[in-house]
Amino acid sequence: MFLSCSIAEYKHSCWFEKLTEEKRNVYVEVIRGGRRVMVSIYDIVVGDIVPLKNGFQVPADGVLFVANSLKVDEQEITGSDEIVQKDLQYNPFLLSGSKLIEGIGTMLVTTVGKNTGWWLKMEEIRHETEEEKPFQGYLQWLAISANCLVLLFASVAVIVQLGLYFSGKTKKSDGTPMFIHGHTSAHEATEFVIKSLSFMIATIVVAVPVGLSIVVRLNLAKTMRKMMTDKVLVQRLSACERMGSVTTIVCHKTGILTLNQMSVVDVWAGGRRMQDMDHVSQFPTFLKELIIEGIAQNTNGSVVFETGAIVPEVYGSPTEQAILRLGNKLGMKFDDVRSASLVHHTIPFNPKKKYGGVALQLGTRGHVHWKGFAKVILSKCEWYMDGANNHRTIDEQTRKFFEGTIENMCKEGLRCAALAYQPYDLGSLPANEELSVIPQDLVLLAIIGIKDPCRPDTRDAIQLCNSGGVKVCMVTDEDVWTAQAKAMECGILRDASGRNIRTGAQFRDLSDLERELIAGEILVLAESSPSDNLLLVEALTRIGHVVAATGMGIHDSKTLLAAGVSLAMGIGGTTAAKENSDIIILDDNFATIVKCIIWSRSLYTNIQRSILFRLTVSVSALTLCVVEVVVYDAFPLNAVQLLLLNLIIDILGAFALAYRPRADRHLMGKPPVGIRDPLITKTMWSKLIIQVFYLVLSLVLINSEKLLKLKHGPTSNAEKVMNTFIFNSFVFCLMFNEFEIQSIDQTLKEVLRENMFLVTITSSVISQIIIMEFAGMFISSVKLDMKKWVTTSLLGLLSQVATRFPYSANQYYRN
């Protein structure tokens, strides 16, 4: 038992180290030799150029040579909770591990590896050994209670046995008392006392459920390995347990429900709306030049022509890549456009304000280009450019037309962006401080519809969640119409009534009580910010939901900390989000989140099975020994037999029930288990009592001489035959009980496909046969004839039939 525990502990430690390395291994974009490439943070070298953006964690120490409104959080490095403003003149140095709160920039790497300050911080990360685990807490209470009861009953049994012995009521096989005062030698009395105490100790060893902790460790270790193969990285074991109790998933749309592979499929510009991107080059020349200028200069991405390549490589965020590809179709020559003008000032894209811009110097004139959410940009425009390159006033009717165009694109599930600009004479370009606020008299250049298709397996995964009693709530910063269209495409919404949709502004304006009243009905939270998502998670938690929330960036950290289970994305998530998460979804796929729930529910039922089996062994052995000693004044099993029972049944049984090869999708056909529900249900207690009653009754009846037709005599082994028969019957009853527990929610074919279970059951049977046939002298047993072997097997089979409840698996594990 201790060897198994040590092995499980060692494997768990090795696995955790592997998971820690996987979590730390983050890929970032760097510029090498003029090309943008993705590399592991372990492969960054001095001299690499690293583009920086909002929510990014600095992977190495370095110095800035481009900085635009850059604000950095260095709390984890310096301990200061103040946000630091970075610039090229006074504070250009960046520390590894610091987090970018706002702005954009570019950094030259100067220090990597063990020489950085962040390295020491990373080395201090260790497993939280004292984190609260629901299973461990319940099992600790169960084990303490069982230990006390076992010690009590075993002590009572021995005291009664010794009392009967010294009072002369314990008889030999010929009917004479075993102890006669003045005649029985001290050696004989001492031998009986030692035998009784050995029996008590062996009973305690068998009946005390020390294997419960091993069962949990084996199940957790196996489940975590299987989850890793399904692209789920568990960072905290308690989250693996809680995931099965999740009732609501608060999930971001982009990159999780969708593929995050964006492309421009609809463009309005110059009075024309074009949905065939192969003909966008037909727009007026001057208008195209302005659009191309705005696309090329107002971006963090880049376009690179590789040697011999026909199609250029596009780098940047998915949205930037889509807009840059539109520029390529318009005839953009990225490097030429970038070099044709001088950047006067950059206004980084702000997620809260939903726009960004760039001020350019072009000879004797200047342009300020703006890009952002279509509604936001349109609200700042007083003019639009028509097909004749003229600035036209946006009157009320024209504005309604543009709003209708945006709404139409959004209803098709497109993300709508807009491009606008403002011309200036060179000397009249606004100062940097003035550019922090977008002006009100922009010229609208284009409205762009960007498509981000849903993942092909998202709809089925959401239906599976709904069938399992798990609600999916989509949060997005996009327009209500876009959010509604995507939610209907994914299967989150069934109709377009809008009764389950709220905007972030609507939700944040409510009181706490009002939020709690409607939080359970919300399926889509559109135009929401990270703070709105936090309010939703808190409201759901207060009304009793177990919430799993996804996070992508540094601004989602508070939401992740507030959720019952926090899920970071392995591809699209920032390092800050991963650090604050319980589980990392390595492929960013919503279907993988559902697999995580299935594995957690499977873990729960596996532990239920193992605990039920272990308690059956403990209670049956204890009850049998106490009843036999008190009622029949005899030891039914000797100490060696009890220890062999512990070895064969307990340890092998734990392996058989722990190693389940797959997660069962049918577990999503029932509601989640309450986070505070008892691990052992009422039905399981009933089954345990009936199983123990059947075992004890059968073995007590076997103790009848008439039933076995045993004859006592000087050369007879009647007592040994009877005890051997009891021991063998007990083992086979427990083996069949193990088989019955495993097959409670599976068909026979499914059970027979589980190799580990069959191997352990077969090993148990073979071990029992070998012990009984070849090692009987060591355990005070005798060989049984074929008739008695068949009888013991039938008793085991009947134990399975006797305890088979007329319940479904759903009722069995949840009532």
Automatic annotation (TrEMBL):
InterPro entries: ATPase_P-typ_cation-transptr_C, ATPase_P-typ_cyto_dom_N, ATPase_P-typ_TM_dom_sf, ATPase_P-typ_transduc_dom_A_sf, ATPase_P-type_domA, HAD-like_sf, P-type_ATPase_IIB, P_typ_ATPase
Residue intervals of the Cation-transporting P-type ATPase C-terminal domain: 635-799
Family recorded in the similarity comment: Belongs to the cation transport ATPase (P-type) (TC 3.A.3) family. Type IIB subfamily.
Principal location: membrane
Residue span(s) of domain P-type ATPase A: 27-116
Gene from which the chain derives: LOC104728842
Gene3D superfamilies noted in UniProt: Calcium-transporting ATPase, cytoplasmic domain N (3.40.1110.10), Calcium-transporting ATPase, cytoplasmic transduction domain A (2.70.150.10), Calcium-transporting ATPase, transmembrane domain (1.20.1110.10)
Membrane topology listed for this record: Multi-pass membrane protein
NCBIfam families from the UniProt entry: ATPase-IIB_Ca
Catalytic activity: Ca(2+)(in) + ATP + H2O = Ca(2+)(out) + ADP + phosphate + H(+)
Pfam families: Cation_ATPase, Cation_ATPase_C, E1-E2_ATPase
EC code: 7.2.2.10
Record's subcellular location: Membrane
Cleavable signal peptide: none
Keywords: ATP-binding, Calcium, Calcium transport, Calmodulin-binding, Ion transport, Magnesium, Membrane, Metal-binding, Nucleotide-binding, Transmembrane, Transmembrane helix, Transport
Membrane spanning stretches: 141-166, 197-218, 611-632, 638-659, 679-701, 721-737, 757-779
Enzyme class (EC, first level): translocase
Physiological role: Catalyzes the hydrolysis of ATP coupled with the transport of calcium.
Name of the protein in its database record: Calcium-transporting ATPase
